[in-house]
Amino acid sequence: MKTKAKRPAGKGSQQQKRAEQRAARREVILAAALDEFAERGFAGARLDDVARRAGVAKGTIYLYFRDKEELFQELVRSALGPFVAAIEGALSHDLPLRVVCDRLASSFAREVLGTRRKDIIRLVLTEGRRFPKVAKFYYHEVPERAFAAVRALVKRGVARGEIADDKLAKFPQLIIAPALVAILWDGLFSRFEPLDTEALLRAHFDLLFKAAERRAA
Amino acid sequence: MKTKAKRPAGKGSQQQKRAEQRAARREVILAAALDEFAERGFAGARLDDVARRAGVAKGTIYLYFRDKEELFQELVRSALGPFVAAIEGALSHDLPLRVVCDRLASSFAREVLGTRRKDIIRLVLTEGRRFPKVAKFYYHEVPERAFAAVRALVKRGVARGEIADDKLAKFPQLIIAPALVAILWDGLFSRFEPLDTEALLRAHFDLLFKAAERRAA
Amino acid sequence: MKTKAKRPAGKGSQQQKRAEQRAARREVILAAALDEFAERGFAGARLDDVARRAGVAKGTIYLYFRDKEELFQELVRSALGPFVAAIEGALSHDLPLRVVCDRLASSFAREVLGTRRKDIIRLVLTEGRRFPKVAKFYYHEVPERAFAAVRALVKRGVARGEIADDKLAKFPQLIIAPALVAILWDGLFSRFEPLDTEALLRAHFDLLFKAAERRAA
Amino acid sequence: MKTKAKRPAGKGSQQQKRAEQRAARREVILAAALDEFAERGFAGARLDDVARRAGVAKGTIYLYFRDKEELFQELVRSALGPFVAAIEGALSHDLPLRVVCDRLASSFAREVLGTRRKDIIRLVLTEGRRFPKVAKFYYHEVPERAFAAVRALVKRGVARGEIADDKLAKFPQLIIAPALVAILWDGLFSRFEPLDTEALLRAHFDLLFKAAERRAA
DNA sequence: CATGAATGAGAATTCATTCAT
DNA sequence: CATGAATGAATTCTCATTCAT
Hints:
The structure is a homotetramer of 217-residue chains. With 217 residues, chain A is mostly helical. Chain A contains eleven helices and no strands. In chain A, helix 4 packs across helix 6 (117-127).
């Protein structure tokens, strides 16, 4: 970290290394920020602690982010790209709706609930109101895109007769509601009453699709 | 309320008036606090502003609440009693499950979404993590009690053949999930895409009960 | 306290009773104030606590004392009159100096160290600097008068050949220094090392008078 | 001290300079705090004023001291080490007791009464009661050590026949009492009646030692 | 680039004092 | 007179942000 790595490498590689180091450090700070924000909320998190956790000086944070708010925004931004891609990808496979849903559920459990991403989502849900820019970005990046995909999925399912009506296309929220509740429950009440998220989601889809299947039958 | 009624009143009535005034002022402060907390979150709300909004001096708040945190706790506490009572009340009537649900939905829309209570719930969801006492109180006061009522309702429905299985008894969260999502959506994304909560809830129950009805059929 | 004592007594007796009650209440407040000031110092004492301890409402204090400072002043004032009188009285008896001193010592132990008066003295020593009026009053009331008496005593002792020189007349502080130290020690260090004040004072006088006696011899 | 000496200095010297600056600033704050505390007492002193007097920002104080109380503790702590060392040093010389005492007296006048140290002692005497940690530290650091030294001195004096009895070994307070009284008097009453401390201490030792000498004679 | 000391605006809390009842 | 609720100035402490090194 303190080695100057002076001569050798050509200029291009030099610059590239610099850029990589910069990116790496950015990631370290973002990771530390996520920990602190998730633990204490936006207002409660101290940049001092973020810096300590990231192993950098406090001032360094300001070399990568304009201010605390931008750090928060970037935190959200940085964690969402890969996330929605997965959802959109599910459409490309030509599988039965129920199968797609089951895969999404387990992918959600694996990729979101099992990782720091759930903390990001929780942060958006809990702090988003005071950060319109974050809410806006998140809206366009996640629900808007995800719901578009879901609507397409549902319509295909209806067309194929896999599902009876298009209520779910009108209210895609109905599909993901239990997932959000699971995230919130986990942070608030799991001490008192643990919640088996996978079972919850499975039960949810069972109910939704039993309805549909019967109807279609 | 503002009549002076000086002489006649005996000591008792005097004291009573005092108590009433005290209670009234408490309410005023709580209402102002709700506004500020809902707007800015716990950390962001300034007691100065709460006081100004309540029309009292800053110090006065401390005559009614030990500190900011207790003010927050009492805020939650004060708004919940009447709320669950309604849910529990729904059980006492001997109506078909679907009817009960519809009533709960419209009662929720009227009594929660249409009032400040939705802000309280949002506050619990967004701030509860950093206030374990609030989360605990809320858990015991709302979901625990409400879910007990829901489970009983569902079981009665199953026994009567109104509904096919007891998944909903196992995961009452599935029933209220859309309601919570509606509250959060309202605060976060309604600017971009308004959400018709009543239609959402109706669609939700339609799906749940179509499943059940068909099954039962 | 709450009885109105309406009709009977004549006007004079009425007024007298009023005055007595007033005086009594004043005393109660002063006693409570002494407790609180001694415990917490001037700045640390809360009038709220003084009132509670005195069993009166906070506002009542202001019916008897202009403000906190005057309460403190009156506290000092009220406790000192009787005190110096005793010292001055010691002169009137025509006893040998050593006997007078021994009497003063035991009287000091009894009347000061054994009572709340030691707290008053401590308060003057510890708070007097910030209350010039108190310091001034105390100076004129206690050391000035007491030292005048002491000087007279010493001079008489010298004249009678009971004591060799008049250093003690020049520095009466030398006579009372150990008493003050005892008061301070008591409040600060007695936890770590108790101090037998009477023995201390006796040893002190032994030293002073052995010197004198030998010299005189 | 203010020279920039930029380039040459190596890392070590850099760090050293940092450390020195830190220490210097700490001293500046302590000095300012002493002024304010001595003037207004602990409770009355405002950190705002301490900062202004020290020429730093309010927040800076908190980079050096956890809170107001620790600032006070460190104030006392920082001023006492060198002080007792002097007392203990007096023992090492093999001089007659009276000479040692005279030296201590003039050293006390020079090193304590003539400096800010007297203010520290006064602060301990006046505020110590509400800061048990300060009282404890001071007790172990000053009277305990000083009295041990005094006891040894006195015993040596007795053994050498310079002094008659060991009352002073039992109550070393008797030796320093006038010094403390001088400090208090200075702060409280010197406006009304100045006190020549050196003469007071000399007179004190004269009395003590005349007694002893005669006895020994 | 990186550092971390310094800054100072800002917020919670306290408490002497007032005043309507 | 007595009360005690209300006031708001004053004070401590925090922490995002800046900047000299």
